[in-house]
Design a protein that fits this description.
269 residues; alpha/beta; Purple Acid Phosphatase, chain A, domain 2; 6 helices; 13 strands; 26% helix; disordered C terminus
Length: 269
């Protein structure tokens, strides 16, 4: 089966890229299942009911998130009411929502999605490694042969380590959070597709999505600064996976970067 993962959607520019590019990608590449990370979809911080509905009308099958899912109070009830929306699963008990669920593709394949968050340079959460042990087994017990992990983490070493730890047990481990796409897409020896960071869907004439002037001012003064999404050089970053649905192993992984203006994939190193 063909799976598309769309990297962190940032504000209205990112949503526009998804709106204008996703239908053609799904059609031309024969995509069977689409996952989108939406934690920054609403003006760069969290989600709203309207942003989720927009993703659903485009045929998105599952939505993951990260630390910014908590930035809007209105996001919290959506985690319980919207079955397509996940948050990092290794938060303590009692927080809204879940980060581990089995979905069904258009052709009836059960797809397990696990959303985790790292602990290095981030919040002190439950261990993502031990959480993965438990949840991957549970997703497979529920019939999911295809299991995809969105690991929302800061440290490259933590992402690489979890990739090796889960090699052969999940179809793919895809890193998110830094908004900078890495060039290490590969299939690990056990059959797990891996990429340290999938990048960002949004404005690249920016500092990871934010207007350059605002980010620079924050670094110069260390004063609180209101961040707003930039608007130039809008791109869709993501990953295309070819997965054997009978074994759950990844046959091929390829990172993607599509410019909205040209809708042509730039050459990759």
């Amino acid at each position: 089966m063909n799976v598309l993962f769309v990297a962190d959607v940032y504000g209205s520019p990112g949503r526009r890229a998804v709106r204008e590019l996703l239908p053609d990608i799904v059609s031309s590449m024969g995509i069977d299942f689409t996952i989108v990370n939406v934690e920054n979809a609403a003006a760069g911080f969290g989600v709203t009911k309207d942003t989720l509905e927009e993703m659903k009308t485009l045929g998105v099958d599952a939505m993951t998130s990260g630390n910014h899912i908590w930035d809007r109070r209105e996001s919290l009830p959506l985690l319980d009411s919207e079955p397509l929306l996940l948050r990092p699963h290794n938060y303590p008990p009692g927080v809204p929502g879940t980060g581990s669920r089995v979905f069904t593709s258009r052709d009836g394949v059960k797809v397990g999605i696990l959303n985790l968050m790292g602990r290095v340079f981030m919040r002190e959460l439950d261990c993502p490694f031990r959480t993965a042990d438990r949840e991957v087994a549970r997703l497979k017990d529920e019939g999911a042969r295809v299991v995809i992990v969105d690991f929302h983490a800061e440290a490259t070493a933590e992402k690489v380590a979890l990739g090796w730890y889960l090699d052969g047990r999940v179809s793919a481990l895809l890193g998110t959070h830094t908004h900078i796409q890495t060039a290490d897409d590969r299939v690990l020896p056990g059959g797990t597709g891996y990429l340290t960071d999938c990048g960002m869907t949004g404005p690249f004439d920016s500092v990871i999505g934010v207007k350059k002037e605002q980010a620079i001012q924050k670094f110069l003064t260390l004063l609180p600064t209101r961040f707003e999404p930039a608007g130039g050089d809008v791109r869709l970053n993501g990953v295309h996976l070819e997965i054997d649905e009978t074994t759950g192993l990844c046959r091929h992984i390829e990172r993607m970067s599509l410019a909205l203006e040209s809708a042509v994939r730039p050459a990759t190193a």
